[in-house]
Amino acid sequence: MHIPRKTWPCFDDIFHLFDRSMIDEEEENIEEKRAMTQARDVMSHCIGGSNVLICIDGLVEGADVVFFQFQSHTVNGNKCRSLATTPNSPNKKIDKLKSWHLSCLTSSDARIFFMNHVNAKALNNQEVMSIMKNIYDPCRGNVMSIKMICKLVNDKIAGGETTRLTKFIKKFQSAPVDPKMQIFIILEAVFSHSSLGEILSKLAWRCFAAFCNVFTRENCGRPFVPKSPTRTLFRAVAERFLKDRSYNLETHSVLEIVDKIIEFLVQLDLLNFIDGFDCNQTPRQFYQVSSDILQDFGEQLSGNKDTSRKFHALLIHEYISMFSGINAAFGSNEIDFYMLKYLPLHSMQANDFEDASLTLQDARFIEERLKFMGLLNGIKKHIEDTRKLAGKLKHMKEDTANVFMAISYQNCTRALVKELLHENTGIIYGGNKKETLEAMWMLAFSLFSSFLVKDGCAVVQKAMEFEHKNDTNRIFKMDRKLIQNLSKTPNGDNNKCTRAVILLGSSMVQCGMKKVHAMNLLMNGLTQLAVSLGLESLEVARAHVYVGEYFYRDFNMYRYARHLFKQALPTFLRELGKESEELYDAIILVGKSSIHVGDLDTALDILEKIDPKLSGTIAVDVKIKLGYIYTVKGNHDKAQFILNEARAMSSDQEITNRIDEMYEKSVQLSGRCSI
Questions:
Q1: Cα–Cα distance measured from residue 83 to residue 25, given in angstroms and rounded to the nearest whole number
Q2: Residue 195 CB: number of other CB atoms within 10 A?
Q3: Do 293 and 187 form a contact (C-beta atoms < 8 A)?
Q4: How many alpha carbons lie under 13 Å from residue 266 in its C-beta half-sphere?
Q5: Half-sphere exposure of 508 (CA within 13 A, CB side)
Q6: Which residues have a Cβ under 8 Å from the Cβ of 499 and sit 6 or more positions away?
Q7: Which residues lie closer than 8 Å to 442 by C-beta, 6 or more apart?
Q8: Measured between alpha carbons, how far apart are the two ends of the chain, in Å?
Q9: Using CA atoms in the order 10, 16, 19, 24, what is the torsion angle rounded to 10 degrees?
Q10: What secondary structure, in 3-state letters, does 425-471 show?
């Protein structure tokens, strides 16, 4: 099967993050599997009818390979293949899955591999080859170790360092068994007196360490880094390094040295060189660390967090100096585009929180970011950076973090509105209306999550206007009057904003918007209200029941719902008394949710005690629940007795039919015949 091109997909928006501290582990696993299935469906849609080979290296759980079985949507369905490596094979047979056990190279295969990867100059050096006999044996068939040995041999012979190579080979014969340690030992030898010479070898070591530390990210350990920021970082490192050592730059410029070091790292397979495209489909060249082991090695080279912080600061300083005219010839738009996306991140990594804060609040920076990245990706990235920095600032001063978030999101809102108004035709940045609306919702949701209700409502109102103008399928299904009323909520009134956020979450559930976002607003609003008014407040107790009913009825998260109902009981009992209807309602909800989590004993104990105190439809509902529990527990006499009581109290035909069905089931299970 011919594979015409390579691509690297990313699903960073598939998983929606929210506070899971009170969510049952089983429910969380279900949510994760649902997200993975959604990601698989998205990828299947992107593949279409193309010939595609998906390579997944290091899949932790072999059974998860089912989430990478993409459908090609073709008649024969054979155009997509997935190839995965995993240390844990699936326990059960999976349809359309073939598996092979991978083992290390045999001694003869290792010899062939070694001979194929050392160059002609090494093969023709009889002195070295006699010493290198069976050098691959200590590698014990590990392909990567053998390959790094070959790279070492080629470079040392190219630099005329045969004596040092001979010493290393003798020492390596007693190398440790662990492949990772072997590779680290080989890499140390590679960077010691390489073909670059002593000083530039040390510089290459420092540049590789900088690359691994500066460009790694939380969601991607080995990202593809554009050529321009790579050269900018290496130039900054080289200037500092060579200046300290009084290196003579008359023969070669710093830029020539940088390019020489990049070429050296690529030749050693420490960095991959890749031709590709940026987010605007502009052809770009990228570099990437070749493997996770090499990434670990590079990160360890820096030694400590302080060195890593200095590397980030060097990149920022070098980039800023390019605007002063000193290095104007070196710069290009590519570095500007890179910094529009990652400058705040590098500032945070350099521990320069003040600079990161000013950047993320800067209106011009936000506008340029949205223009370059597009509304959806630009707003997504701005929200991500704002949340990350706010989290760091809260450790120092929560008020400062809240003010920063407010200004950052408000300026982002203004930039978004400005971009929308700029296009009189209503076609936004590339004409993708759906992405525009998704960007607006993402920003509105972040504003609501930060309790900036007034600003969030302004974005929602603008989005509703845009939907109406462009006859687009509605994403914003909330009630216009509700949004109009909530838009008057002052940002300074914490309690009003908190109540509004809970109301918005419930409105989202009722109108069928994203449940995970509705959960987030309901949980955040409830938590903030409890912090503000205290858990013993009657309003907070009522809010627990109000929010809990959504988790019970709409989200089917019964364990968390029961937790919320229980939280309200002490306050209801103290403030309203033991005969309060609200107390009864909360107790019944605890009993109902206990049934759903399988805790029938607790449910039976609660509902039996409260049943005599009830009347009307709620009494009928409780008796039906008791009838169900008695039936499940095998106490059919009690089940039939209480179901007869429920039938006598009910005048609703639908409920009566339901009772009759339960009664018949109980009779059948008890082995009797009804008369």
A1: 30
A2: 16
A3: no
A4: 13
A5: 25
A6: 525, 529
A7: 376, 379, 380, 383
A8: 70
A9: -100
A10: CCCCCCCCHHHHHHHHHHHHHHHHHCCCHHHHHHHHHHHHHHHHHHC
Residue 226 sits at φ, ψ, to 5 deg, of -60, 155
**CA distances in angstroms from 298 to 128, 267, 309, 475, listed in the order given:** 29, 17, 15, 45
Q: Which residues contact 454 (CB under 8 A, 6 or more apart)?
A: 486, 487, 488, 489, 490, 491
Q: Which two tokens stand for residue 167?
A: 């010493």
Residue whose C-alpha is closest to residue 639's, from 657, 609, 659, 619: 659
Residue that is written with structure tokens 């914490």 in the block: 494
Token pair, residue 664, equals 């018949």
**Four-CA torsion 383, 389, 392, 397, nearest 10 degrees:** -100
Summarize pLDDT for 341-377 with one digit per residue, the tens.
Answer: 999 999 999 999 999 999 999 999 999 898 888 888 8
In contact, 84 and 68? CB cutoff 8 Å: yes
Residue 589: closest CA among 565, 558, 606, 571: 565
Q: Pairing between strand 52-56 and 80-84?
A: parallel
pTM for the whole structure? 0.72
Q: Which two tokens stand for residue 551?
A: 């988790």
**Residues 369 and 340: beta-carbon distance below 8 Å:** yes
Q: Is 252 helix (H, G, I), strand (E, B) or coil?
A: coil
- Give just the sign of the alpha carbon dihedral 562, 568, 570, 576: negative
User: Of all helices (H) and strands (E), which one includes residue 311?
Assistant: helix 305-321
Report d(CA 547, CA 101) in Å as an integer: 51
State yes or no: pLDDT of 587 exceeds 70: yes
Q: What are the start-end ranges of the H helices in 487-634?
A: 494-510, 515-533, 538-553, 558-576, 581-596, 600-610, 616-633
In contact, 628 and 595? CB cutoff 8 Å: yes
Which residue type, as a one-letter code, is found at position 260?
K
Residues 6 or more apart whose CB falls under 8 angstroms from that of 389 comprise 344, 348, 353, 356, 357, 360, 404
% helix / strand / coil in the chain, to the nearest 5?
65, 5, 30
> Which of 627, 658, 620 minimizes the C-alpha distance to 641?
627
What is the structure's pLDDT at 263? 92
